[in-house]
Amino acid sequence: MSDFSTLLAYVIVVILLFLIPGPAILLTITRTVQNGRKGGIMAGLGITI
């Protein structure tokens, strides 16, 4: 059975990986900054379709 320090390290790594934005989020943010709200919405719609 794992000890507490191993479990704590695992939980910290999982939380950090969860907080890192993925490529879809980075693309949407980039398009929003470059082209405004409409560009961000269109990028989001394009990703989901």
Can you put this structure into words, describing what you see?
86% of the residues lie in helices and 0% in strands. The chain is an all-alpha fold and 49 residues long. Keywords: Membrane, Transmembrane, Transmembrane helix. The chain crosses the membrane at residues 6-29.
Structure described in brief:
With 49 residues, the chain is mainly α. It is built from two helices and no strands.
List the SSEs and their pairings:
Blueprint: H1 4-19, H2 23-48
Q: Main beta sheet, described?
A: none
The strand count comes to 0
Mean pLDDT: 92
Shape: rod-shaped
Rounded radius of gyration (Å)? 17 Å
SS class: mainly alpha
Transmembrane segments: 6-29
Keywords: Membrane, Transmembrane, Transmembrane helix
Core attributes:
transmembrane helix, 0% strand, transmembrane, membrane, mainly alpha, 2 helices, 49 residues
